[in-house]
Amino acid sequence: MTVLFHLGHPAHFHLFRHTITRLRDAGHTVHILVKKKDVLTGLLDDAGLPYENILPEGKSPGRTGMAGDLLRRGRRLIAFARRHHPDLLIGTSADISYAGKWLGIPAVNMNEDDAALIPLHAWLAYPWASAILSPEGTDNGRWNRKTVFYPGYHELAYLHPDHFTPDPEITARYIEPASRFFILRLAALTAHHDRGIRGIGDQLAVQLAERITPHGRLLITSERPVPESLEPHRIRINPAHMHHLLAHASLFIGDSQTMSAEAGVLGTPFLRFSDFVGRLSYLRELEERYRLGYGITPDHPEELLDRAAQLAADPSPETYRERRRHMLSEKSNTADFIHQFIVEWHMKNRNIGQVSFPEKR
Hints:
The chain is α/β, with parallel strands linked by helices and 361 residues long. The protein is built from 13 helices and 12 strands.
């Protein structure tokens, strides 16, 4: 079997890494395509996974540039597939869906965001996809009929206990693992789906630092410049080490949806401050069903400050560890699900909507 994975973001490396390794170890041929050179390619290099960059010139600015990039990536993906004859295309981008349709190759699109929140992606990707894989509870609208729902989250493909054990020695390169420390993540919010989305502004970030630093050390990781008063808290972290720090932290605060979910599945209480609050089913489940974190909209900054001070003073780690155990008892290892889906599809030629779920762990 030959499988082509298309990765467009560092999170996609984590999502598919263990599945790729298992397929390769079993003797299957795996090709990896990426669309930019950044942290993603560094992670692939560190893991020793070969790849080909189909957009080495980088992204073009503006909507017109984005449309041109989509066409360029599609042409190059199609040319690559014609040379290597994959049996299946899989990834999170629209490219694989329309390329697969053009070539007559099954294309599986993975996404955990509700379709209404990513209308452009859904419109470009879902009509042409052979199947969509999404966590239970995700609403893919008119495309629910071609969605295979699984009991998990993207983050459990790499942070499930089967795959990840926090290493205190790695954390100790930055801070004492047993100490009380808090991570503040400031996202750039520049992606097309972030248009009009508010997060943690500079003034609020300064106020957060004032509220929580009496209770422990603050570590700031940011995709954008930070106020001068926050620079002493800013830290450069090897991307491969971030999850170890996140697991040992007493609290995570951010406007990053992915890192909030990562904190939650690791049992670190999180505060998510964004206009996306209430609009993403999988994060709403982590917050409301499993109570692993709290979502607060930008209309309520005082609530964020008060909640941050409360959790920083008393993070109640055992409470969140127990909530994490409850969540894990009801969810599956997502990497196992993806691997089983691919293998069953190829070996048994089963109906794509009837693949059985892996046993929960």
